[in-house]
From TrEMBL, chains A, B:
Sorted UniProt keywords: DNA-binding, Transcription, Transcription regulation
GO MF term list: DNA binding; DNA-binding transcription factor activity
Listed Gene3D superfamilies: GntR ligand-binding domain-like, Winged helix-like DNA-binding domain superfamily/Winged helix DNA-binding domain
Name of the protein this chain belongs to: HTH-type transcriptional regulator LutR
Organism: Pacificibacter marinus
Length: 247, 247
DNA sequence: AATCAACATAATGTATGACATTAAATATAT
DNA sequence: ATATATTTAATGTCATACATTATGTTGATT
């Protein structure tokens, strides 16, 4: 980061901007900005146009541009300085738009990713067991039951799976868990889709949801963790299968 | 903490607010807000006053309050809804002021947090070994050497430590690693400060930085990972020490 | 010519007011 | 009682004026 010569300024001129974003009007500012940066080929250290020009070209108020840029600043994607303007501090790419914080995973690294997810999920279960209130307990059980019904009614199993895990994250009372795991898990979505579609991967874990939920509600830490470990092991085994088939 | 029922609305009335923040005027908005929330005893699910009132009582513009609240929203600390207003989604405490994305850790859970950080750091090393280019290699070595010099010149060791790890994250070419680890690591900052100040924790790992950097640049995966494991082990051992002292 | 101080400038930072939008709360009709 | 329309209180957006501050430039002093 510090190797980038600060002098390399590559501002976008007005015509360029106009051409770039004229069509994408209603889009969200961050999205439009990302597109803009990508198409203009801006990289780390390069300078963005002043807020007011971005606002003008995107047909939004300066305040909205500000909020977007400040959000990026808080994420460490840009740096902002009075006279110096806004500069990129990280690469941005439109691939990240719908999975903003995605690990870009080749199939090969799925296992290692899983190894990171596993302790997090287990930790969530531990915390949830400790913190769950009676009221939340009822919610968890109800939700787990409902999701299984939805699944058995023929709905995409992933709906049930996601819903269940999110319920547990919520029960933990620490929103950061959900953030972290989502970031990691997003990478997995790649494997559900083409080209070697493994849409069933993880489906087999659904029958374990209800027992796990019951253990959490009952505050049975050890049992709950054992269930989660089993779930993680099943996923891991399936990932391995996929990888072997591939080679 | 999670015992708060979502229906329990505890708005702050005008006099209360006035009394709370009248004196702390020039302060930063987030700081003042935090103080406000803390002193009013607001917890998860509780409602904050409308932007405009906060602005009035803090003697700042609504835009500034908005930016602060939006920043918190992006961090998952508050939720915002049109009619419903802004509600706390996480505990805030004036201890967290300088570590915005903090995992709130009791000393007891530091070890588990460390267990999550460890595989991530190791994974970064693995990826960095694979991806490092010749040019980056030079940068890494130069930077590592420079940082050690800075450290030996009497600078706070954490400057050198952070700088080094960040260099490796960058070398991995995957910006997500830095994000994830930062989020996790932020929680650790608590241990550096009061009340049981462990400002030296981790300092002993600095001599390992240069050898590790050399291994990465040389593409020696096994050796590099071994160094990182050693670093992680040292940190873990020190955390254990602290915990034992505490009990 | 080199260095330093004063000034100009261009960007972000802040304040404010008006209006748009939306989701909760309330009233009304079925 | 339940559904539907209305009100309303909050956030969302835009626009404008002004404050602040890093940077760039000019000019004086050595």
């Amino acid at each position: 980061m510090s190797k980038v010569s600060a002098s390399k300024i590559k501002p976008i001129d007005a015509e360029m901007l106009e051409h770039l974003v004229a069509s994408e009007n209603g889009r969200d500012v961050l999205e439009a900005l990302t597109l803009m940066i990508e198409r203009a080929g801006l990289g780390i250290g390069d300078r963005l146009p002043p807020e007011i020009e971005i606002a003008k070209k995107l047909n939004v108020g300066r305040s909205k541009v500000r909020e977007a840029l400040i959000a990026w600043q808080n994420m460490g994607i840009v740096t902002r300085n009075k006279k110096a303007g806004t500069r990129l501090a990280a690469e941005v790419s439109s691939n990240d738009l719908h999975m903003p914080l995605t690990l870009k995973l080749e199939a090969e690294s799925l296992l290692r990713t899983h190894a990171v997810r596993r302790p997090l999920e287990i930790e969530v279960v531990r915390v949830a067991c400790r913190n769950v209130t009676e009221q939340q307990g009822r919610v968890i059980l109800a939700r787990a039951t409902e999701l299984i019904a939805v699944y058995e009614a023929g709905e995409d199993w992933r709906t049930a799976d996601h819903g269940f895990h999110i319920t547990i994250y919520e029960a933990s009372g620490n929103p950061l868990f959900e953030q972290l795991i989502r970031q990691i898990q997003d990478g997995f979505n790649a494997i559900y889709e083409a080209p070697f579609g493994r849409a069933h991967l993880g489906q087999a874990t659904i029958p374990l949801h209800l027992p796990l939920a019951k253990a959490i509600v009952a505050g049975e830490v050890k049992i709950a963790i054992a269930y989660m470990e089993q779930i993680m092991d099943m996923v891991e085994a399936e990932v391995r299968e996929v990888m072997e088939e591939q080679s």
